[in-house]
Amino acid sequence: MAIAITSGPLRYATKTDYAAIITGIIALSITVTVNPFASQTNGDFKTALQDNMTTNERKVEIVHPYVGLTWAYCAIMLIGSYVGLMSFAFFCDRQITQYSQHYLAAVLRKNVAYFDSNLPAAMAYKLDAIDPGIAEKLGYFFYVALLLLVSVIVAFMRNWTMAICGNLLTGVFLITYLVYRFYTRPINAKRNKIAEKLQNLVSDVFSGIFTVITSANQEYELKKYDQLVDQHTAYGRKAKMGLAAFMGFNSFSSGTAIFVVYYIGAVIYYATGKDYAQLWTVSWLVMSALVFTWSVAPYFPVLLNSLRAIEDILRIIDEPLPRSKSRSFSSKLDGQISFQNVDFAYPSRPTIPVLTDVSMDIPFGSKVAFVGESGSGKSTAALLLTGLRSPVNGEISIDGIPLKSLNSTVLRSMIGFVPQEPTFFTASVSDNLKLGLKISDEVIRSACETAYALDFIEKLPSKFDTIIGAGGIRLSGGQRQHLAIARALVRNPKILILDEATSALDAESEAIVSKALMAASKGRTIITIAHRLATVRSADVIFVFENGAIVERGCHEALVKLDGVYAEIVKAQKAGDAVESCEMDLTKRALKEDSEEFECVTESEITHMTSLKQLLELSGRQSWILLLGLIITGLTGATTSPFISLIQSFYSAMDDPESEGLSKARILILKALALNVASGFCVGFGGYLLCIYGLKIGAKLQKFGYSNILHQDGYFFDKTAHTHGNLAKIISEDPNHFDAAFDAGLVLVVGDLMTFIGSGITAGFKNWQLALTCWMILIVLMVGAGAVAIWVTGQDRKHAKLSATAAKILSEGIQNIDTIHLYNAEHYFLQSYMKVHKETSKIIWKRNLVNGIASSFGITLPMCMPLVVLALGVQFLKAGVISPTLVSTVADAISPRVTFQIMAYFPVYARSRVALTNLYNIATHSISMTVKPELPEGYQKHVSGEIAFKNITFSYPNRPNFNVLNDFNLHIPPGTTVALVGTSGCGKSTIIQLIARMYRPISGTVTLDGHTLAGYRQSIAIVGQEPALFNLTVADNIAYGKPGHTSMESIRKAAIAANIDDFIKTLPQGYDTLLGARGTQLSGGQRQRIAIARALVRNPKVLILDEATSALDAANETKVQEALKAASKGRTCIIVAHRLSTVRDADCILVLEGGQIVESGTHDELIANGEAYKRLISNQ
Fold first, then answer.
1. Torsion over CA of 844, 850, 856 and 861, rounded to 10 degrees?
2. How does the average pLDDT of the chain come out, rounded?
3. Which residues partner with 1104 through β-bridges?
4. 944-1178: which CATH architecture?
5. Tell me, what's the pLDDT at 232?
6. Would you list the domain boundaries of the chain?
7. pLDDT computed for residue 893 by the predictor
8. Which pTM value belongs to this model?
9. Secondary element (H or E) of residue 1090
10. β-bridge partners, 355
11. To which CATH superfamily is domain 2-320+597-923 assigned?
12. pLDDT in tens, 803-845
């Protein structure tokens, strides 16, 4: 905490920020200084009115100056509190902006290895731990602290004996609060750890959401999630119990302490003969300040949690960078590469070498290739060249300059990297290509034309301005690779690295792109990593990797003659790189709606706020908890009138002789004790019920929302409001925002509101004219506050929408940090995030300016309202409708403290309302297709695997007028192997999407054994080109095919069949090795083999292989295909692949064009009679 308190809040403060702090302190100090003067004026006012020696006319003359002082005090406090609160809000908002900018900049500078031990999801949530409400509350905290300090000082100056008595309540409050913090601190620490687990789980699941859905593993994931939510709620219940006890005891002790202090004052009064009214005023100065302290006490944890978050953020900001950026070199470097005795192992597996004593020299302008089995170290060697990771031993240099001495920005600016699984962000095509690079449109078009991407870009709804990525138009695997190549070329790199860069292209596109790349290779070094040897035959030098070492090197002809490892790879690889891959890969989001439709959907979802009726309907039987809590808490208002009467009786008792007066005082203390026991019970028990209600309903919404997300289809995830980052933010954070509205703040508001009503009724019985006038004033102010509240809620909705956009940018950036580094896009992402963040800051500032008016009234009224009542009472006194005594009585009776509570509570309520709306919309979002129909017991045993498409017409939402499938019919008999081939856009993957039940056809039906497919996902297994792995052990990732029902023997059997068992045994903990987020430390081939094993343990009736072996080398592919061929016996198998060797043995090959089957038959039949199929072969 020391770091955060001493240097944290002011670390990035400028002169402007210091000026804001000083202005705020001065303004609030002036406001606070008015309090003792107002208290003195209040006492003098009452003394003058109660003087029995003067007439009413004379009393009016005497108190006339006090009336003028009253209005002056009101004006000073209103202006001072407004300026003070806005100054602190201005300071906080600027500091949060600075923290956000420096934190994200620091995270984006972290080496990729940093995220091996720090999960990206957790890093993305750290900024959200700084409560934005701190900007509103910090001013309150300073005000209350200054008020308490000034009140104590003035009290000691006037009468130190009574000041000490008044501070009895201070000691009680502090001791109680320390006990409360001691009790809740370990509970909250455990609760925060569970919350972090929940965040990581949600991020992990959402990143592989289509694997979860198509595997029908929703219930498995829900069980894990619900268990964590239940644990989180259980600890929350304990913390709420402590909070309720704290509130109840303070309510009891504060009321009791008042009478104890009054009694001590009475003893001093009788012993010394001092004016009891003065003694009362001195003690009340301290106690009234403590009442305000008690009012903001529920918000202390917000401040403490924000300070802890700042401390955590500072720790990350201050962590040393893994490599120095002090040296800088110009772009005059050519690109001559040298590896000298390089060793490398991943930090999580330090004992398992990935590269061993690798040495090679690559002259500038040469074309080299890395080949070898999957996991042999090819891609790792290329990765080290980019500086994303550093070798354990040895040295890598460019033009003789070691990489560790090169500025990483300069290094990566001269390297163009095209990965096998390219990542794109929620941005336009143009922005995804540039990623902050300042280049002309002509350069972009030229690169796209070279990469053979221009044609399909021109067909997109908004061409280069079309939004793609997580929240935009879905692209096929081939289209993504076209764009990835274009993204590398626009940088005009000296070194171009192609890591399986054309594996997702159809044969015709690959030939054209390869030719274009060869033409573009002039003046640059080309490193190609490929399994298709046809891609690397023309390389100047081929480096053959095996078990992390280079075992052969030379040109293609020389290596073939050598008859070694390379020659074996050539022999193992059969002819057949045939057709283009699935244009709509299953592991990614589906086609997105256009921007106009998105705006409409998003706006409608945040405009219609959830009503109280909807909340109560959702609460069901738990509504009684809310109702009972409100009633019991509200009963504190019933104690108001007796409490006021006891105070008046106590004051009157001081006119009696000592023995009689003190005797009456002791009896009054006992009555007050009983009254405060009842009040404390109502606050404690009623508060506990309200807290538990918020906790339970928040957890209920959290579970319902998460369950509903997991049971959605592709249409749900097509909406920009439903990106991974936004959904994770809603599910993880909004339950806490909702719960906060039912915390101590609501308890205080309800209690004080009932007290306000009770005191108003009491005042009305004393004198209805004055009471009604005061009530009308307060009602007008409350209506004004209500209007402000409605406006502020609208601003909060706008803020929520922009916050969702910021969360999406932050989540995408951190979770794809390797892509950010590869393209030097750190500044671009930082600017993109800060642009949105600054827009949110503008909304918050505008909101604070208006809400600050209501807040200043909330501070002023509790202090000045008694004086206002007295000033108004003077006018009624003039008219002769009220006695002087009743003026004082009504002034004492009306308690406007609730206005302060409401103003402090309202920002919490507003955020809670938005959070409730978000959660309610997610939890009640309709599911467009039945995903869990009634099925007969043991139905899977009777599934044969017969698939039928009948008169299917289908189009994606963003292009409703373009039918991907037109009156499509297909029948796949059970137990047959069918291959789907064709050029990009022909409908292959659309067919798979419909089988996976991610979309429903516009017309026609898709059936399995004559039944709709939704309930039969357990009978289907899908292996995609880019498989999603989870932050689980290797064994659990494989068992994910059939979680909870898979033995270790079955897991090993599947791993052996997928040819991954030997590799798993080399891992530090074998099958118990944790893979980490998305399994990124494994090679593409290793991930694919684990995914294949995952499908095999499922023992499905229908096996779908969507480029399932595209990331495997020829040797592994042959072994895995043999296993898959054996596994396909007795089940229906559907294959989408490029390599002809994958499909030539299929029972039937279907050639698709324009959403129709144009040819069908076996390989031999199509060779003999087919035209379209032969064209595909001729292009390989």
1. -130
2. 78
3. 1022, 1134
4. 3-Layer(aba) Sandwich (3.40)
5. 92
6. 2-320+597-923, 944-1178
7. 64
8. 0.71
9. helix 1084-1097
10. 344
11. ABC transporter type 1, transmembrane domain (1.20.1560.10)
12. 777 877 887 788 788 888 888 888 888 888 888 888 888 888 8
